Amino acid sequence: MKKLILLGVFALLFASCKTSSITNTKTDRSSQVAIKGNWVISSVNYPGSEYIKVNSFQLADSQCFVGSTWKFISNNNKGEMALTKMGCPAFSSPITWFVNKDGQFVLKVLDAGEKAKRVRDGYVLGVANQTETSFQLIDKIDVGGKLTDVVYQFTKIN
Predict the structure, then answer these.
(1) Alpha carbon distances (Å) from 74 to 47, 57, 98
(2) 109: closest CA among 118, 101, 100, 130?
(3) Are 137 and 144 in contact (CB under 8 A)?
(4) In this structure, are residues 96 and 110 in contact, taking their beta carbons and an 8 Å threshold?
(5) Integer Cα distance of 139 and 151 in angstroms
(6) Which H, E and C letters describe the chain, residue by residue?
(7) Would you state the pLDDT for residue 27?
(8) Beta bridge partners of residue 5, listed in sequence order
(9) Tens digit of each residue's pLDDT, the chain (158 residues)
(10) What's phi and psi for 56, nearest 5 deg?
(11) Euclidean distance between CA atoms 132 and 76, whole angstroms
(12) Euclidean distance between CA atoms 41 and 103, whole angstroms
């Protein structure tokens, strides 16, 4: 997962992408409108998942996100997410998000009552295979010096 730490106008990114394209406020409106609504993560897949544990969004094991619910509001780039899987930590939070012109999904997980501009940590994922009823967010992780895709499969629930 590309972790983004925002420091005022400057951004430091712990990945190999250009920071200017990630934090660019120009959005891909058509992608954002297509994501609007209520979704569930139906699967999380990556090579070696039977051997390697991935801590997604610094919250929980990636498999705890299967069944999690997400609400995306495209006109104000807000929403909410909730982890509800048995045997996993219960967690819910407001979020802010947008899809930039480069097709990257930029996400901030907020504490209750916290303003997005005060949150310094964010996540940048790729958007892929977007249809009316599904889409994928793709994270890149380093496994033994090789970048590996972690694919979060979203399915629309309404």
Answers:
(1) 32, 21, 8
(2) 118
(3) no
(4) yes
(5) 7
(6) CEEEEEECCEEEECCCCCHHHHHCCCECHHHHHHHCEEEEEEEEECCCCCCCCCEECCCEEHHHHCCCEEEEECCCCEEEEEECCCCCCCEEEEEEEEEECCCEEEEEECCCCCCHHHCCEEEEEEEECCCCCEEEEEEEEEECCEEEEEEEEEEECC
(7) 63
(8) 12, 121
(9) 544 433 332 222 223 333 334 455 566 677 888 899 999 999 999 987 778 888 898 889 999 999 999 999 988 889 999 999 999 999 999 998 999 888 899 998 886 555 544 555 688 999 999 999 999 999 998 888 889 999 999 999 97
(10) -80, 130
(11) 20
(12) 19
Q: How far apart are CA 73 and CA 101, in angstroms?
A: 18
Residue-level pLDDT at 29: 73
| pLDDT recorded at residue 30 | 78
| Residue 91 to residue 78: CA distance in whole angstroms | 17
Single pTM value for the model: 0.78
